[in-house]
Structure to design on (877 residues):
């Protein structure tokens, strides 16, 4: 059977608000459930952007990604968000969890089913709202068989949940591993760059083309409704000095931050000039609420509904690594996507690497041999500034990359991200107009 | 242009299925086992024993991805993106994972995703796991009596004042209580099937499963694991058989089981089909016609299937059980979710270029008697001879996500046993969905 071409025909997202799990009223989206946020993107797509062209009736499958499915994240197999948006019941759906890569994996699976001829129109969404009162997974980790010494399934000695369960610690360990290549200043400067680029994107109105304004409330005042039109984490006035002086949030390996530390205290101080952890609120992404949605179509459907593609999907990739340095995941995922596309990094015009942490971006750039291509990477900022509503980020970076390719009249782009638990996902897309 | 590749079902193993009991956990022989543990047991059995014993060189590090399905990916069932069961079974870190929730269809969905990734050339060996543990991570059917980790969608959709109100469209009261969906389906199909026929179908399921159990048919696919005696959590014993198959059961036994559903006339669902009088005239009772007898019991269990590309078959000397020909999926009205198997099966047949007559054997999941019977009727299946010939979920039990994998692999074994060519397996899902697969016996 011949593999069919798959196109991205639309992309829309909510603005990303700042999550405040400890003080919900301070999050503008503190009262909006993740499935509501998703439904708002679906309704914007079908009721406004593509009105009179394509309807939810025409959709074959709906995929929703999230990092867990407790409490308000429950979707009954992907049904709630699409039912909120009044999709007909005949649309098939599924919910999936690949941690941060959930949203991008939704797109990859839609890509597969369209390519094989099983679907013509697939909607791939990702959602997150970390503020929701009870959104934290209620598992007491200590009770798990994986954490009980002597239990048949005790794996903590290998998996090191203290580190692999805390994204901050995985970034600390990765930074220590890369101590010969990057110092803390590189990280902090990379973060400032992210904020400056995103602020420029906001000023130029670049993000207007992908954001649906959401009626929410003023941060800190639940009773005052406010239309949120911009991402709330972007700080255009960020400076290197301000970022440098932020407190370390992590524990270095020598201080028990992870098993089998890579450096003694003396070596650590010598390498980094501080006893403190290296990961700060400045060089890591904030926690955010938001949802993002991609529409994928076959060529036949695109002609039938008279839609123009914003990009064609060429290939996808996924890979897994040691979960204690989950930030390395994008490296094998990107190589896999390149291999399947028969391309090298030289062929790619623009890159989007999700900035879960500055060190994740920098490590990937170094491993892929792209240190001299900084001008082609995350040109409108990334997770550090725009925000990282976990599963929603995959559709965002693919969609944003497609828009960048169009704007720059460039041909090929690669989007990739790391996932908690030690995975990476990647997707290569092509601007069909270039 | 690129071509899709062929995909083979290679092996299957499962735990016995125990009877879930969130209200009295001690009565569930697996109540102390986490769902992820059950999944890890089948993974270990597959890679420690079954694959090497069959002379294959396949190792854990050769696996392209582990796909995990569970109807309730909550609380203890969180898998960290499909990773934890694999790690518990000593899979190396470089094997990626993903976890899926398509309710009852989650397990079969993992097969469909594996099929997609192998077809498209992204994976060579896919491990599909389905598990559910309804004692420890229960459904929300028990009211306040049991702590649940996901709430019904009442907040947004039930309240007519809320801007998200859409209860007229999806009617959540019925949709989220699976026995109510079966009641509504049975009322809608009242001209075709009576309660007696539903009960008879259940007897058939138990009798066939009992026979298969006695003949040792399930030995091939079940691994024994340690549980405890019913009601005696301290008394550890090895469990090697499904716990819900009833021996020598008669139609009388089933017919006398108490009703668990509310008829439409009594408020069971909106816009009821029958008035009370018409209902009584039709069914000879005022009560709901869905009983513990003609529905599948909720169970704990895990099931694993291995999918491979042709290249992997050669590289690792694997022998296929069957070839996966096509997949199907569909959504239906969630208030009669059992209808989902019909369009999903039709889609799979269409993509396989086959007709109903071409299918030699069927496995239609018996979440309720009426679901399987309705599918047989709508599709025109000779169900007495060709469907669920070794019993189904009514007898064997229904650990939702593990069931999709069980019926697919069972079907492959049936095709081999009967020297038949084509088989179709389908399962309906909560929320109103259906999932289906067509497989081919290569011998």
């Amino acid at each position: 059977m011949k593999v069919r071409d798959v196109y991205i025909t639309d992309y829309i997202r909510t603005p990303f608000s700042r999550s405040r799990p400890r003080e919900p009223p301070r999050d503008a989206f503190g009262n909006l459930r993740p499935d509501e946020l998703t439904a708002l993107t679906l309704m914007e797509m079908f009721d406004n952007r593509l009105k009179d062209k394509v309807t939810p009736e025409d959709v074959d499958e709906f995929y929703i990604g999230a990092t867990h499915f407790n409490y308000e994240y429950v979707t009954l197999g992907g049904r709630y968000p699409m039912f909120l948006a009044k999709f007909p019941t005949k649309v098939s759906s599924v919910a999936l969890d690949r941690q941060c890569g959930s949203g991008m994996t939704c797109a990859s699976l839609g890509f597969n089913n369209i390519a094989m001829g099983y679907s013509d129109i697939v909607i791939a969404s990702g959602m997150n709202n970390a503020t929701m009162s009870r959104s934290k997974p209620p598992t007491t980790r200590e009770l798990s068989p994986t954490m009980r010494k002597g239990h048949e399934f005790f794996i903590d000695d290998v998996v090191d949940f203290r580190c692999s369960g805390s994204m901050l610690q995985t970034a600390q360990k990765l930074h220590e591993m890369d101590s010969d290549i990057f110092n803390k200043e590189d990280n902090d400067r990379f973060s400032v760059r992210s904020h400056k680029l995103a602020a420029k994107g906001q000023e130029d109105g670049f993000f207007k083309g992908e954001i649906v304004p959401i009626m929410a409330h003023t941060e800190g005042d639940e009773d005052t409704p406010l239309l949120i039109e911009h991402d709330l984490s972007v700080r255009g006035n960020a400076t290197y000095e301000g970022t440098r002086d932020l407190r370390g949030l992590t524990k270095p390996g020598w201080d028990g931050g992870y098993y089998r530390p890579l450096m003694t205290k003396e070596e650590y101080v010598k390498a980094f000039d501080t006893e403190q952890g290296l990961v700060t609120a400045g060089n890591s992404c904030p926690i955010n609420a938001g949802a993002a949605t991609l529409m994928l179509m076959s060529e036949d459907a695109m002609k039938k509904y008279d839609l123009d593609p914003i990009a064609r999907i060429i290939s996808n990739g996924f890979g897994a690594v040691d979960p204690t340095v989950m930030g390395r995941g994008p490296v094998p995922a990107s190589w896999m996507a390149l291999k399947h596309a028969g391309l090298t990094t030289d062929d790619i015009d623009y890159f989007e690497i999700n900035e879960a942490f500055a060190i994740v971006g920098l490590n990937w750039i170094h491993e892929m041999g792209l240190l001299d291509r900084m001008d082609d990477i995350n040109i409108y900022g990334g997770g550090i500034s725009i925000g990282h509503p976990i599963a929603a980020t995959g559709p965002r970076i693919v969609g944003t990359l497609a828009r960048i390719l169009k704007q720059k009249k460039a041909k090929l782009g690669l989007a990739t991200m790391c996932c908690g638990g030690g995975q990476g996902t990647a997707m290569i897309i092509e601007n069909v107009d270039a | 242009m690129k071509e899709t590749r062929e995909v083979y079902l290679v092996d299957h193993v499962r735990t016995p299925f125990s009877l879930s009991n969130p209200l009295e956990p001690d009565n569930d022989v697996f109540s102390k086992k986490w769902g992820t543990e059950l999944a890890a047991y089948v993974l270990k059995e597959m890679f420690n024993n079954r694959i090497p014993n069959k002379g294959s060189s396949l190792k854990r590090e050769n696996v392209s991805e582990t796909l995990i399905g569970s109807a309730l990916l909550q609380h203890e069932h969180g898998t960290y993106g499909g990773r934890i069961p694999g790690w518990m079974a000593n899979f190396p870190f470089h094997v990626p994972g993903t976890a899926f929730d398509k309710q009852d269809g989650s397990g079969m969905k993992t097969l469909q995703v594996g099929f997609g990734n192998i077809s498209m050339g992204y994976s060579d060996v896919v491990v599909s796991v389905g598990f559910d543990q309804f004692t420890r991570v229960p459904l929300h059917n028990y009211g306040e009596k049991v702590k649940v980790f996901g709430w019904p969608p009442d907040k947004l959709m039930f309240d007519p004042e809320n801007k998200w109100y859409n209860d007229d469209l999806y009617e959540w009261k019925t949709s989220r209580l699976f026995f109510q969906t079966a009641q509504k389906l049975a009322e809608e199909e009242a001209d075709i099937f009576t309660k007696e026929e539903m009960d008879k179908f259940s007897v058939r399921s138990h009798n066939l499963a009992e026979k298969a159990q006695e003949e040792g048919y399930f030995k091939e696919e079940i691994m024994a694991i340690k549980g405890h005696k019913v009601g005696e959590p301290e008394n550890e014993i090895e469990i090697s058989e499904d716990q819900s198959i009833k021996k020598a059961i008669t139609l009388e036994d089933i017919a006398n089981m108490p009703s668990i559903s509310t008829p439409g006339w009594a408020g069971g669902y909106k816009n009821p089909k029958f008035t009370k009088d018409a209902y009584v005239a039709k069914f000879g009772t005022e009560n709901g016609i869905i009983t513990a007898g003609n529905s599948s019991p909720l169970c704990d269990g895990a099931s694993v299937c291995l999918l491979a590309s042709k290249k992997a078959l050669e590289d690792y000397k694997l022998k296929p059980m069957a070839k996966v020909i096509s997949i199907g999926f569909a959504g239906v009205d969630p208030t009669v979710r059992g209808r989902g198997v019909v369009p999903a099966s039709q889609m799979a047949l269409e993509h396989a270029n086959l007709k109903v007559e071409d299918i030699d054997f069927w496995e239609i999941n018996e979440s309720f008697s009426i679901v399987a019977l309705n599918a047989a009727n709508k599709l025109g299946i000779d169900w007495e001879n060709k469907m669920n010939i070794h019993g189904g979920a009514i007898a064997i039990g229904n650990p939702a996500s593990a069931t999709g994998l069980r019926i697919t692999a069972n079907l492959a074994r049936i095709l081999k046993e009967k020297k038949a060519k084509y088989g179709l397996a389908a399962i309906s899902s909560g929320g109103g969905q259906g999932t289906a697969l067509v497989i081919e016996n290569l011998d």
